[in-house]
Design brief:
GO terms for molecular function: peptidase activity. InterPro entries: Band_7 (IPR001107), Band_7/SPFH_dom_sf (IPR036013), HflC (IPR010200). It comes from Pararhodobacter oceanensis. This protein is an alpha+beta fold. Among the domains are: 51 residues, no CATH class; 112 residues, Tetrahydropterin Synthase, Chain A; 60 residues, no CATH class. 50% of the residues lie in helices and 17% in strands. It is built from nine helices and nine strands. The strands form three sheets. Strands 6, 7, 8 and 9 form a four-stranded antiparallel β-sheet that branches. Strand 2 and strand 3 form a beta hairpin. It is rod-shaped and about 170 Å long. The termini are far apart.
């Protein structure tokens, strides 16, 4: 029983020693086994490994790709225009043992400080050899690749591989922004003035062409309308002439009625002689001359050998002059008809 009591602590101690001598390497890390500060083992493959407990020490480093954002850096390109540049780098530990010897016990934090100084020097070297226009342009991938190559060569002494370098921000210093914006504003205003001038020139050219087209169209339309109006007037006169020649008495009556309708309005007043020829058709009971036609028929029945005596002939009275304002007659002379002309 006493032996068992003594054996249990021994077994516990032995198990503790065995467990403390074992360590596991993850696939995301590299491990150094140190003995009194000296590197004894380098474990980069994942698995289970052993060490001497209480004598050897295990130091772990991240084997993944790490990122580093640099502080804003002021550089001077070849044209002496100062720029403020930010950079972002991707890096990883390439040689764990060299990395340990370079940075010591501070590890990743010390490595980031030294890598940032290397990046700043590389950025100044590369960007200082080109004008600011090349730095501010979109095609600056070549500059970033040159910066990466320079930083990679310098970082090899730390056991670090710089995978990529990107310029995240490239701006002018605050004291230069006002002058730069003023110059840009002046250039844009000049371009706007040029565009406005070209637009006004084009507008005047188009307006002149439109005015000429309007004049041509109006002239052509006026000419066509005058031709059509002349043809219509000729056709109207021909119709009037045919109607006048076919029945002069009815034509004179129709024209007089039209004149009465247009001249005698609701509040119209006319000063005429009572026996004026203008109202002849209103005074006559037989405006179409039915009695005259009967007399003409009776005279036609009288033999031609006995002509009517000249004393009995009743000459047609002379037509009275039309008063002022009355329409002029279009009937032929000697007929005694008053057919006023169309009012305009």
């Amino acid at each position: 029983m006493k032996r068992l009591t003594l054996l249990i602590p021994v077994v516990v101690i032995a198990v503790a020693v065995v467990l403390s001598s074992m360590f596991v390497v993850d696939e995301r890390e590299n491990v150094l086994v140190l003995q009194f500060g000296q590197v004894k083992q380098v474990r980069e493959e994942p698995g289970l490994y052993f060490r001497i407990p209480f004598i050897q020490e295990v130091v772990r480093y991240d084997a993944r790709i790490l990122g580093l954002q640099t502080q804003p850096l002021e550089v001077t390109p070849a044209d002496d225009r100062r720029l403020v540049v930010d950079a972002f780098a991707r890096w990883r530990i390439e040689d764990v043992q060299r990395f340990r010897q370079a940075v010591g016990v501070e590890g990743i934090r010390a490595a980031q400080v030294r890598i940032e100084s290397i990046l700043n020097a590389a950025i100044r070297q590369v960007l200082g050899s080109v004008p600011s226009g090349a730095v501010l342009s979109e095609n600056r991938t070549g500059l970033m690749n040159q910066t990466r190559d320079v930083a990679r060569r310098e970082a090899l002494s730390l056991g670090v591989d710089v995978i990529d370098v990107r310029l995240t921000r490239t701006d002018l210093p605050e004291q230069n922004l006002a002058a730069t914006y003023a110059r840009m504003r002046a250039e844009r205003e000049r371009e706007a003035a040029d565009e406005i001038a070209r637009g006004n020139e084009a507008a005047q050219r188009i307006r002149a062409l439109a005015d000429r087209t309007v004049v041509e169209l109006v002239s052509s339309a006026t000419r066509d309308s005058e031709i059509i109006r002349g043809e219509a007037d000729a056709q109207r006169n021909r119709v009037y002439a045919e109607a006048f020649g076919r029945d002069p008495e009815f034509f004179a009556f129709s024209r007089s009625m039209t004149s009465y309708e247009r001249a005698l309005g609701a509040n119209s007043a006319m000063v005429l002689s009572p026996d004026s020829d203008y109202f002849r058709f209103l005074r006559e009971s037989d405006p179409f001359g039915a009695g005259a036609q009967g007399a003409t028929s009776a005279a036609a029945e009288v033999p031609a050998e006995a002509p009517a005596p000249e004393a009995e002939a009743d000459p047609a009275p002379a037509a009275e002059p039309a008063p002022a304002g009355a329409p002029a007659s279009t009937a032929p002379a000697g007929t005694g008809l008053a057919a006023p002309a169309e009012s305009n």
